[in-house]
Structure formats: C-alpha cells, structure tokens
Amino acid sequence: MCSSDLGAKGEGADFTEASLSGCDFRGAVLPGADFTLAHVERADFTEAALDDARMNEAWAAEVVLERASLVDFRAESADLKGARLAGARADGALWQASRLDGARFDGCSLKEALFSRAVLDGASLARVVAVEADFRRARMHQVTLLQIGRAHV
Questions:
Q1: Bridge partners of 59?
Q2: Is-contact 20 36, C-beta < 8 A?
Q3: What share of the chain in percent tops pLDDT 70?
Q4: Pairing relationship of beta strands 151-152 and 133-134 according to DSSP bridges
Q5: Which of 8, 35, 54, 70 is deepest in the core (most CB within 10 A)?
Q6: Nearest 5°: CA angle at 90, between 27 and 59?
Q7: Runs of H (alpha helix) within 44-132
Q8: Confidence of residue 84 (pLDDT cuts 50, 70, 90)
C-alpha cells in the first residue's frame, strides 16, 4: 500500500496511466490532477481536494471519495463501481458514461452534475442536493433516492 506525502500541494499533478490501487491520498490537495487511465481501485481520497481533476477512463472501483471536494471533477467512461462519495461536494462534476453501480452518494452536493449514459444500478443517492443535475439517459435500476433536490431525470 502506498502513501501520499503530497500532503499540501500537487496542483496539476499528472498520474496518467499510473498504478495507484489502494493508495492513501487522504486530505491531499490535488486540484487539476490527471488520473486518466490510472488504476486507483480502493484508493482513499477522503477529504481530498480534487477540484477540476480528471479520472477519465480510470479503473477506480471501490475508490473512497468521502467528504472530498470534487467541484468540476471529470470522470468520463470510468469504472467507479462501489465508489464511496458520502458528503462529497461534486457540483458541476461530469460522470458521463461511467460505471457507478453500487456507488454511495449519500449527503452529496451534485448541483449541475451530469450523469448522461452513466450506469448507477443499485447506487444510493439519499439526501443529495441535485439542483439542475442531469440524469437523462442514465441507467438507474434499484437506486435509492431519498430527499433528492430538483434534478432532470
């Protein structure tokens, strides 16, 4: 298991195609970081700052993004099955065509987030703020939706 000592700053860091499965990025400050095509399965980004970061086409099953700042985060065509995002702020995030089966967005802020063509089977979106979020063309079988704010579904 690797540990991140980026601690304070890592703006624009490039992790493209890196193998970071199980890494500890708790509290890391990585705005604009690029995790495109990276393996970050089971990595822990609890309370990390990942605004404007990219995780396009990444393998990120069971990644932990709880209470992380994910404003304008991009995860297109990524595998985020079982991701844990409770309490994250993901306003303006793009999850287009990503696999989010079983993901837990409980208590998340998803204002203006885009989930077009995403798969959210079995996901939990309890108590999310989803003002102007767009779930059109998303697949959402057996999803938990409790107290969801205004959204396009």
A1: 39, 79
A2: no
A3: 89
A4: parallel
A5: 35
A6: 75
A7: none
A8: very high
Strand ranges in the chain using DSSP code E only, listed in sequence order: 133-134, 151-152
Q: How far apart are CA 77 and CA 55, in angstroms?
A: 9
Question: Tens digits of per-residue pLDDT, 97-130?
Answer: 999 999 999 999 999 999 999 999 999 999 899 8
Closest CA to 30 of 1, 51, 4, 44: 51
The answer to whether 120 touches 96, Cβ cutoff 8 Å, is no
Paired residues of 74 in beta bridges: 54, 94
Distance CA 11, CA 50 (A): 9
The secondary structure of residue 150, as a DSSP letter, is S
Distance in angstroms (rounded) separating the CA atoms of residues 32 and 78: 17
pLDDT digits (tens, 9 = 90+) for 32-70: 999 999 999 999 999 999 999 999 999 999 999 999 999
Which residues does 126 contact at the CB level (< 8 Å), separation at least 6? 105, 106, 107, 144, 145, 146, 147
User: Contact at 8 Å (CB) between 111 and 88?
Assistant: no
Q: Which residue has the tokens 């995790």?
A: 35
Secondary element (H or E) of residue 13: none
